[in-house]
Amino acid sequence: MMKEAIDLLVKILTNILTALYQPCGFSLLLSFLAMFFYLYTYESAAAGKGWKSAVATWYKEFKGSVFFRKLFLLAFVTGLILFKTLLNRNLWMNPLSDIMGGWGIWETVNGEQKLTTECIENVIMMMMPFSTVVMWTFQEKTGNNWKKILWQSGKIAFIFSVSIEMLQLLLRLGTFQLSDIFYNTVGGVFGGLMYCAVMKTRKHL
Q: For residue 100, what is the DSSP state?
């Protein structure tokens, strides 16, 4: 019994780490370019002076601005989510073929039980870190009230998840699934809880 539990845990960790490892390069590039766009929008004084000046300005902002580094991390996490949910998906003939989706870690494929960690990935790998980073990046607006933080993190995760599912439906990239919306929202609330716990711990240090 113990060996089976350990094997199951290893498979789950392997699937999660693989899903996290694959889009890392793309997400780093996307976040790097996204912050160039941010600089061009809000720090346009150095725009049009060549790529060396642009890179120097980017490095200066990254080194000197905490908010800039927070935005970079937020762009990186967002890139991970977009890669997994939209950018690395095959076209589906019928995106409404599985509206309810999967609600457990086992699914039946051709009459056989197959391990799937999609629900765990939706909670732990996707919306949990996303909502945590969002709360941390805009902490001046979210405040310190834990009820407000949980409400905001859950709401943001829900809206983001519905947006992704609608894009999957319209672009035929994957399938529209209610289970994804549910687990993503739960992950968002857990992310808010983690943010509250970290902030409370920092106050006592």
A: S
Measured from the Cβ of residue 140, the count of other Cβ atoms closer than 10 Å reads: 7
Domain spans of the chain, in order of start: 2-204
At 138, phi and psi to the nearest 5? -110, 40
110 Ramachandran zone, left/alpha/beta (phi>0; psi -120 to 50)? left
Q: How far apart are the first and last CA of the chain?
A: 41
Phi first, then psi: what are they for 173, rounded to 5°?
A: -105, 95
Alpha helices by DSSP H, 43-177: 51-64, 66-82, 118-120, 128-137, 139-142, 146-171
Per residue in 95-124, pLDDT (tens digit) is 777 787 766 666 665 666 665 667 777 777
The tokens describing 187, both together, are: 């992950």
Residue carrying the six token digits 């407000």: 148
| 0.85 exceeded by pTM | no
191 φ, ψ to 5°?
A: -65, -40
Q: What is the DSSP string of 21-72?
A: HTTHHHHHHHHHHHHHHHHHHH-GGGTTS-HHHHHHHHHHHHHH-HHHHHHH
